[in-house]
Amino acid sequence: MYRTHTCGELRLANIGQEITLSGWVQTNRDLGAMAFIDLRDRYGITQLVFSPEINDELYQQSRKLGREFVISVSGLVRERSSKNLNRSTGEIEIEVQKLTVLNSSKLPPFTIEDETDGGDDIRMKYRYLDLRRSPIKNNMIFRSNLAIETRKYLAAQQFVEVETPFLIKSTPEGARDFVVPSRMNPGQFYALPQSPQTFKQLLMVAGLDRYFQIVKCFRDEDLRADRQPEFTQIDCEMAFITRDQILETFEGLTKYLFKTVLDTELPDFPRMSYDEALRRFGSDKPDLRFGMEFCELTDLAKGKDFVVFDSAELVVGICAEGQANYTRKQLDELTEWVKRPQIGAKGLVYMRYNEDGTLKSSVDKFFGEEDLKAWAAKTGAKPGDLILILAGEEEKTRKQLNELRLEMGRRMGLMKPGDFKPLWVIDFPLLEWDEDAQRFFAMHHPFTSPKKDDIPRMLDGDHQTLKNLRADAYDLVINGSEIGGGSIRIHDRALQEKNFKLLGFTPEQAENQFGFLMGAFEYGAPPHGGIAFGFDRLCAVMSGQSSIRDFIAFPKNNQGRDVMIDAPAEIDGGQLEELFLEVKKAE
Ligand code: ASP
Q1: 190 phi, psi to nearest 5 deg
Q2: Is 224 a residue whose pLDDT tops 80?
Q3: Does domain 12-103 have CATH number 2.30.40.10?
Q4: Is 135-268+532-576 a domain of CATH 3.30.930.10?
């Protein structure tokens, strides 16, 4: 028998028992008259004691055990004289009577402790060692619990778990597909699903009524920070359902997960329209852990010969509470920050509302005290506050101020870990006009239904009307992260055809790519809708961490590579021939 207990289990109550443990040598400290080994397994760490007095042969053997050797020991549980109360097993130790070396280990390339000296690349290359570290191991356990609890909740609500295929057909809409050549069908390719969207809708036509799947999705996008080419969704669809019922069901799931996994009670989720979110926060996924809402100053700011404001479509500011003591140097640095290409603002105007009641702005040349007082009144600034103002073209300026708001939130310590602020953002636009491509794109995806009241306008609206159509689409946002998104779907062939037409598909293209779905709509498709949660992101947000990578057992790096198995890789000539493929060498 390898073990009677785990390394996280023994307590004072076990004193005097003969036990057997197995695990990895974390540290080996030889003090001459005694040697201490910390033995680690998934469950914890237990201290082993060897001494020449008790058994000299064992003591000599123990000195040869290096870090990460795998050993099994039997011995007696005894009380520790100097206790370590930070460790669950810290009151006891094992007086070893038998030692078996199960395997040796090379010296690990980084320390396997909570704080490691290993950089990202080396940790990824030896991910199996990285996963031995508690923080990453605990993330895996957290993720597993979340998946198990998700299944429990959805099963209790009559959801059926169905697997949908991974080898499907490529469609140009959405992100780029990963493709897989078909050996049996020379010159033809499968694509890996970006999501099971059309399949889950077909399951509703099939009458399954409530579907879910915890499923891998694949998107061949340029990897921005914290994106993975393969990621996991909690994917769901429901039939005979209204938007509000879907929101209630998944608000329920979210609250249940926070309660069972984190023991955190979430309040009811507020709802905010897309337009309101943009107006108040410049973002469709506002972080509601703090206020600092946008305040429009356009009317007050114009007509004072300050060209920047006079020529701007929008002048808008935020009030950073208690920050009037920002120094000139800090403000210059903040100005450089907003001017970086990633943000792209042309400049930053500020106004300090000093504690003594005086007002001082970076544009005093153009604005007198009365003007500044009016700004303060409009933004609700009090003595001690700092107002930060951006101006320019409306859409861009809102985006830039959103970035600045988030940056100020970070600097002021307002994004508190453990503080969770969920939000439903609803009523997204149906279509988004792309100036470069001169065509509409679906803001969510082409299967999303317009709001009922907007259907007549969708059928015969002009360009501007089309831009203003609202969709029955919604996102779940927590602390500024998009956790999930979904919509009520079109379930009628004619309306789906119309939508494809607006999206620039010819009838042939629509039929060729999505004929199977529109065909299914002709056989009694029920009204339906659904949602998908980003499972990796949900894990990270619930844990108060910013990176999804540490919640994925074997993630890819920023170049989309798995550096452990060294993928992607070339395939040999025979394989290529079998697939009727020729590879052009990259220049
Ligand atoms: N399939 C959608 C997505 O991946 C989610 C949904 O509409 O249910 O974003």
Answers
A1: -90, 165
A2: no
A3: no
A4: yes
